[in-house]
User: Fold DsbA family protein from Sphingomonas hylomeconis.
Amino acid sequence: MIRLLLAFLMLPLLAGAAPAPRDWTKTVTRTADGAYRIGNPAAKVKLVEYLSYTCPHCAHYAGQSGPTLREKFIRSGSTSVELRHATRDRLDLAATVIARCAGPAGFLGTSEQLFAKQDDWYPQGMRFEQSNAQRMALYPQGAQVRALAYGAGLADIGKARGLSDAALTACFDDDAAILQIAAMSDKSWKAIAAAAAPQPGGTPTFVVNGKAYASLDWAKLEKILRAAGAK
Assistant:
């Protein structure tokens, strides 16, 4: 009888318990052209970022924006971000393949690691490419990019994120996926040029709810996002 009474008394408490809010940073989808969209598909604020992994400004932006953009705006569901590649060189392509090899679930975390460790792998990759240019010229294109990924230490970042050597090899041997990156990058650079005209454009470039912005730092972009409804 006492147990039944206690259970009855607890019913209002159980009924009033609010469910845990959804973490929208875990929702990652791939668009038709191969970009990755993170967050609520129905978010009020839709951010597009054109990025390059060898771009120091992109790395700086990633470090500054993460605590607010990812942990507040995206997590809450108010904002989604679509990351579109604008590759600049073979080392950038190698990093892009590593990030995408992680798949939708691992893409964002791997991208963040690539930017966080850019000061290490970028100069290492430049030195490796210069020292091994003649030997690498004998390889097929895919093998050249794969060798660069290993020589730069990019493969180690992928392995730390759970990728095996076999998985990495499969990703670098996927000609269709690499062609998709090239096609996306071509479109991205055209969009970047249009956003920055008449000045030359660069990465990162942003689009917020359809309006393009060039040469923004995180402080300025945050104000634009908040004004649009990010919270």
In short: Residues 12 and 18 are 12 Å apart (CA to CA). Strands lie at 28-30, 36-39, 45-51, 79-85, 205-208, 211-213. The chain has a mean pLDDT of 92.
